[in-house]
Amino acid sequence: MSLALLSLAALCWGAASPEPTIQCSSENGPSPEWKVHHALTPGDLRELRVEPVKTRVAPEEHSLLMNISWILRADASILMLKATKICVTSKNNFQTYSCVRCNYTEAFQSQTRPSGGKWMFSYIGFPVELNTVYFVGAHNIPSANINEDGPSWSANFTSPGCLDHIMKYKKKCIEAGSLWDPNITACKKNEKMVEVNFTTSPLGDRYMALIQSNAVLGFSTVWKNKLTRTSVVIPVTGESEGAVVQLVPYFRTCGHDCIRHKGTVMLCPKTGFHNTLDNNRRVLGGWLPLLLAALLVATWVLMVGIYLLWRHERIKKTSFPDTTLLPPIKVLVVYPSEICFQHTVCYFTEFLQNHCRSEVILEKWQKKKIAEMGPVQWLTTQKKAADKVIFLLSNDVNTTCDGTCGRSKGSPRENSQDLFPLAFNLFCSDLRSQTRLHKYMVVCFKDADTKDDYSALNACPKYHLMKDTTAFCKELLHIKENVSSEKRS
Ligand SMILES: *[C@@H]1O[C@H](CO)[C@@H](O)[C@H](O)[C@H]1NC(C)=O
Ligand SMILES: *[C@@H]1O[C@H](CO)[C@@H](O)[C@H](O)[C@H]1NC(C)=O
Ligand SMILES: *[C@@H]1O[C@H](CO)[C@@H](O)[C@H](O)[C@H]1NC(C)=O
Ligand SMILES: *[C@@H]1O[C@H](CO)[C@@H](O)[C@H](O)[C@H]1NC(C)=O
Ligand SMILES: *[C@@H]1O[C@H](CO)[C@@H](O)[C@H](O)[C@H]1NC(C)=O
């Protein structure tokens, strides 16, 4: 009886032989099959695909891995197939290389699945970093013999940055604010003021809210170090309805490179303020005490309003000297080539153009001219044309530049000429002259130390951007006023 059952089971097993699955483990060296000569080897893959997948490693933490899937070619050589080996090379700041070998648990009996369709497998592994180019190659085992061209398949895969819907779960992105939703609302209170509300984050303690249409209409810095809804009234110098609010956060790990958010300025809904006044007038009849109280409140509100207006005028006057009619200041910005261009230099240029009415001259924008004139001639000409020469320094070269910066595509150190030392040497004699020194400034984002080689720069006025912003702009605009009054006189 039991014997009959056993044989029946064996029959069933034989009829439905299990489908091959894969068992993968790392194999960085050559495969053992390499050492043996194979008369017949399997063909290559039909297709190879890579995509990132999110896996939860802890309730609040995600890890990102590659989902590498491949399809086998439906031909007779599949009978020889034992395993598939996948190797991944990443090309970020340094190159890494690692392989896995996936054994098929059973020998293939047919060119296609019993259910029809091609054989397809997928392996999840290889951690994915931000903004990195990966080269994924795969070949079947036993591979071609030594001195024979091995069939193989490869795919390139460039991982996205923190804005991607999967990458945003990386710890580094979360720390840069990828999951923070400031939920910005902004409205035009009147011709001179815009009210901006947003939710702050515990990741940092400082925000800059800018109102801009074509030019910057106004900005304000907000200090808050926990999660809370906050409201700020920003004085503006122009039509603000429909303008853009840009919220720039400064979080601990990303500094000025954090993810920014935008909103739109609407019209504020009419408040009940006038209505209550009107109502009070209507019930004027017998409610003298109430009327008196309302009058008192109204007077108080008016006084506060006048005071606030007066203060804003004063603030505006101090931060924006009357420069509307003056031509822009020409500023030549020189920076060491290891600085992260996209973020640091672009950000600074944007800042100069938007806040300090400057016209910026950058080496990066005049490559052709430099090639024609030669760097020395170009620098000398630009120095003459510029009102100010700014040496932009940044100590935090690596941390600001990896990840969100997109530096992975070829090293800019090689293809960008470093004009910084040349500029420094050319302008060095000016730095020793009291009369010509006023043309130079040093700006740094964090507490950058002037390198010993460039210690002569210590003579220049030095500003920490985002800390001495007002002083910095004043210094720039002040110079312009002097220059234009000289020209006028
Ligand atoms: C795959 O097969 C090779 C060669 O037979 C063996 O060395 C390896 O341990 C196997 N790997 C797994 C995960 O079974
Ligand atoms: C991996 O990719 C394959 C093929 O696209 C898909 O069938 C599979 O569901 C993916 N796995 C995960 C965990 O997303
Ligand atoms: C992948 O990129 C490398 C260099 O970046 C290139 O040489 C190669 O042709 C690319 N391969 C594919 C399959 O796109
Ligand atoms: C954003 O703020 C508005 C107004 O405060 C609120 O109604 C809305 O629910 C908030 N949205 C989110 C996603 O928090
Ligand atoms: C901002 O918040 C204040 C206080 O909650 C509210 O009165 C005001 O309407 C809000 N403004 C905007 C533009 O959301």
UniProtKB/TrEMBL annotation:
Q: Which is a GO BP term held by this UniProt record?
A: positive regulation of inflammatory response
Q: By its UniProt entry, which InterPro entries does this protein fall under? A: IL-17_rcpt-like (IPR039465), IL17R_A/B_N (IPR032356), IL17RA/B_FnIII-like_1_sf (IPR038683), IL17RA/B_FnIII-like_2_sf (IPR043046), SEFIR_dom (IPR013568)
| Main location class | membrane
Keywords (alphabetical) are:
Cell membrane, Glycoprotein, Membrane, Receptor, Secreted, Signal, Transmembrane, Transmembrane helix
Q: Which gene encodes it?
A: IL17RB
GO MF term (any one): interleukin-17 receptor activity
Keyword check for Magnesium: no
Q: For this UniProt entry, which segments traverse the membrane?
A: 287-310
The record, for PROSITE patterns, names:
SEFIR
Assembly and interaction partners = Interacts with DAZAP2. Interacts with TRAF3IP2.
What does this protein's UniProt record list under function? Receptor for the pro-inflammatory cytokines IL17B and IL17E. May play a role in controlling the growth and/or differentiation of hematopoietic cells.
* Record's signal peptide: 1-18
Any idea what this protein is called?
Answer: Interleukin-17 receptor B
The terms describing its cellular component in GO are: cell surface; cytoplasm; extracellular region; plasma membrane
Q: Which domain of life is it from?
A: Eukaryota
Q: Where in the cell is it found?
A: Cell membrane; Secreted
Protein's organism: Loxodonta africana
How is this protein situated with respect to the membrane? Single-pass type I membrane protein
Q: Where is the SEFIR domain?
A: 328-474
Please tell me whether the keyword Hydrolase is annotated for this protein: no
Q: Name one Pfam family in it.
A: IL17R_fnIII_D1
